[in-house]
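Suppose a classmate hands you a notebook page containing two proteins, each written out with its sequence and a corresponding row of structure tokens. How would you begin to make sense of it? This section walks through that situation. The first entry is reproduced here exactly as it would appear on such a page.
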Amino acid sequence: MKKYLIILIISCFSVQLGIAQTQEEKKLEKEESKKQKQIQGDQQFANMKALIKSGNYIFEANRATAVGAGGISMATNPNKILVDNEEVDIDMPYFGVIRAGGGYNGNPGITFKGIPEKYEVSYVEKKRQIIVRIIFASSTETHNAKLTIGKQGQTNVLIISSGRNNITYSGQVTTIKQKGFH
């Protein structure tokens, strides 16, 4: 009987040591995985920064949200914000209230082609975000576009216009070559 009791006690300690090692191994694996994700995230952010610094990229929206309205799929609506060196080509459909300076008779979208009044890039290293601000004017109104670009290219665009309610687009920034423009 004492023999079985001693074997049982030794078995319990062995199991606990085995579990402790497994927990330690899991902790190490988790830390290693976290480090790998950090390295991968840093590399993705560096790649996206390089793309934006190159001045040759395109944003295409997959969703638009106007003030006071629900989200609208952009799957069947051609749209783009194309940056090609100093020139910007913007052709975004608009869904919302036009207060002044335009109308639904012609092209109700937000369009511009040329060198914008202001093009500025800033980096939020801690959040791994890139902020691009583009200020441009059409014949009747001024637009302020803010692109918030994540490390993998996921992007939110807020356009504030002098004659329209704000509109937000979400989509992806990619290279121009991926979309066949060059």
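The notebook's second entry, a different protein, reads as follows.
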Amino acid sequence: MKTFTKSLVAGALISAAAFSSAALAEQKIGAVNVQGIFQSMPQAATIQQDLAAEFKDKTEEVSRLEKDIKYYIEKNQRDAATMSGKEKKELEKKINELREEYSAKAQPLQQEVQGRLKEEQNKLLGFIKQSIDVVAAKEKYDVILNANAVAFINPDNDISKKVLEQVSKVK
């Protein structure tokens, strides 16, 4: 009786394995290099320029503060021997005020720029996802994987170029 049960279980496992590999053989699997597409997109090149223009005034103000701090620190080092105690304290006070102003403006600016950059990148990733869907539907792929997560992909199943062409059409 045990032999019959073992044979029955073994037969079930073999048929399940055969069925699952047959089902896998019928699926068309492709891969796409999302990071490569993102870097090659024409829209990605304009993001940096747009953000630089958007934050130009604030960035220039922070740069001016950096230069002022550097100037006054150098002045303090250069002229310390000839300055009176009162002048030294005034200069140190000026440097500390500039540093505080710099800290109050630089960090929020950096966070604001990073937030806007992430927002724009997410828009582009949405375009990439739409383009992947269009190409996958057109080419009748069942599964699309990120090429960076796959050890090997047959070049015939890499749809990155087609997706880049599709995403380049999106404005």
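A careful reader of the second entry would note: The helical segments are 2-26, 34-40, 42-54, 56-79, 85-139, 160-169.
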